[in-house]
Amino acid sequence: MHLVEKIYEVTERFPRAELYGLTSQLRRASISVMSDIAEGEGRLTAGEWRQMLSQARGSLFEVEAQLLAAQRLRFIDEDTFLATNTCVKATGAALLGLIRFVQSRERRPRSPS
After folding, report:
1. In the chain, is it the N or the C terminus that has fewer CB atoms within a 10 Å radius of its CB?
2. Average pLDDT value for residue range 15-19
3. How many angstroms separate the CA atoms of 3 and 94, rounded?
4. 53-84 pLDDT, tens per residue?
């Protein structure tokens, strides 16, 4: 959720002409990270959960690439980019830990019913 809040804060300062462009893309990608994690937890199997976490990871990479574009287009300065990208990296580290946890659950032998 921290990432979503940070992205909304940063994109608030983007040019008005970008409302339906990069602003929208960044916001949607950050929401996708959070939503895919939540949806994955509601899935019935560890494999389905892992797949949703993989999608969340892909969206996180989108956020990172779009932040870089925003910096190159001078919508954000270097300090804002670094601070926001630190949040992206922290979210990625937590997500990777969750993915590894789910993968370990997938490898556990199933008990007979």
Report:
1. C
2. 88
3. 12
4. 999 999 999 999 999 999 999 999 999 999 99
Domain-embedded: residue 103 = yes
50: Cβ–Cβ under 8 A, 6 or more apart, which residues?
40, 99, 102, 103, 106
Q: Which residue has the tokens 């976490």?
A: 53
Which helix (H) or strand (E) covers residue 2, if one does?
A: helix 2-11
What pTM was computed for the model? 0.88
Structure confidence at residue 12 (pLDDT): 94
Reported as a single tens digit per residue, the pLDDT across 87-104 is: 999 999 999 999 999 998
Q: Do the beta carbons of residue 75 and residue 15 sit within 8 Å? A: yes
Domain with 49, as residue range(s), is: 2-107
Q: With CA atoms as reference, report the closest residue to 10 among 19, 21, 23.
A: 23
Residue 112 falls inside a structural domain:
no
